[in-house]
Write a structure and sequence with these properties.
- It is a single chain.
- The chain has about 230 residues and is α/β, with parallel strands linked by helices.
- Helices cover about 35% and strands about 20% of the residues.
- It has a single domain, classed as Nucleoside Triphosphate Pyrophosphohydrolase (Alpha-Beta Complex).
- The strands form three sheets. Strands 1, 2, 3 and 8 form a four-stranded antiparallel beta sheet that branches. Strands 7-6-9 form a three-stranded mixed beta sheet, sandwiched between helices.
- It is globular and about 45 Å long.
- About 35% of the residues are buried.
C-alpha cells in the first residue's frame, strides 16, 4: 500500500495467461515461505516485531517454518515480483526500486536466479524492515474440492509513495497502483478480473483513507480462517 493525493492505493499484478493458477487474474504479490526466510541474518534487519509476537498473531506456535518467516516471505516475494522492497535506509530515506535503479534490478535478478539469499539483498541495499509497517490480517484456504490447493496468509505493507513496480515477465504481465474503490469498480465492469479472496481483500481495504488507518485497524481485527465450502 502507499499514500497518494487520491488516498490509499494498492498494488495489483496480472498473472500471465499460461499460469496454472488464476491465469489472467489480478492478484497481490505473493508466494511460498522458504526456510531461509527465518534465517538470523534476515531477522536482524527486522525492527519492532519479535518471533513471539509473530507466533501469537498468526497463532503458529512451535511451527516449522516459524511464524516470523511468513512476514519476511511476504517482503521477499514482493521484491521478487515487483522490484519494490518494504523498508527504508537506517536514516529513514526511501529504498530505490528495481524500476528506477539498474543496480537494484541486478540485485533482484540475482535473488530470483538463486545466486544470493534475501539477507544479501537487505545487506546490499542497507535496508531495515519496519515491523510496524507490516500487518497480518487474513487467512484463506482453497476449497477442498479444488485439485490445486493453497493455504494463504495475507499481509498489508506500507511502502514509499514513489515506489514504482517492474514485473517479472515470467509470471506477470501488468502491475497497477490503484485505489481499492477504483479496483472494485473495474472488477464489476469486467475490466479487472480478480478471484474471490483478492476481491474480498480489496473491498476490506476500501474502508480505509490511508495506510496509517489501514495498518492500525487491521492490527486490531481478529483473523478468522476462511475455507469456502467448509
Amino acid at each position: 500500500m502507499r499514500d497518494v493525493d487520491a488516498g490509499l492505493e494498492i498494488l495489483l499484478l496480472r498473472r500471465n495467461s499460461h499460469a496454472v493458477f488464476a491465469p489472467d487474474m489480478y492478484v497481490f504479490p505473493g508466494g511460498r515461505v522458504d526456510a531461509s526466510d527465518s534465517d538470523p541474518s534476515v531477522l536482524r534487519r527486522l525492527d519492532d516485531l519479535t518471533p513471539d509476537a509473530a507466533a501469537r498473531r498468526l497463532d503458529l506456535h512451535d511451527a516449522d517454518p516459524p511464524a516470523i518467516a511468513y512476514y519476511l516471505a511476504a517482503c521477499r516475494e514482493a521484491f521478487e515480483e515487483t522490484g519494490i522492497l518494504v523498508g527504508s535506509r537506517p536514516d529513514g530515506s526511501p529504498i530505490p526500486t528495481a524500476a528506477s535503479s539498474t543496480p537494484v534490478e541486478r540485485i533482484r535478478d540475482d535473488l530470483m536466479e538463486n545466486r544470493i539469499e534475501f539477507s544479501a539483498v537487505l545487506d546490499r541495499m542497507d535496508c531495515r524492515i519496519p515491523g510496524d509497517s507490516l500487518r497480518y490480517f487474513a487467512h484463506w484456504i482453497t476449497p477442498r474440492r479444488e485439485p490445486r490447493r493453497f493455504d494463504a496468509r495475507f499481509f498489508a505493507a506500507r511502502v514509499h509513495e514513489g515506489s514504482a513496480p517492474i514485473v517479472d515477465p515470467r509470471e506477470m504481465t501488468d502491475a497497477r497502483w490503484i485505489t481499492p474503490a477504483a479496483a472494485l469498480a473495474e472488477h464489476l465492469s469486467g475490466d479487472l478480473p480478480m478471484i474471490a479472496p483478492t476481491a474480498h481483500t480489496v473491498e476490506r481495504l476500501s474502508a480505509h483513507s490511508g495506510t496509517a488507518d489501514a495498518l492500525h485497524t487491521l492490527s486490531l481485527e481478529r483473523v478468522v480462517t476462511i475455507l469456502p465450502g467448509g
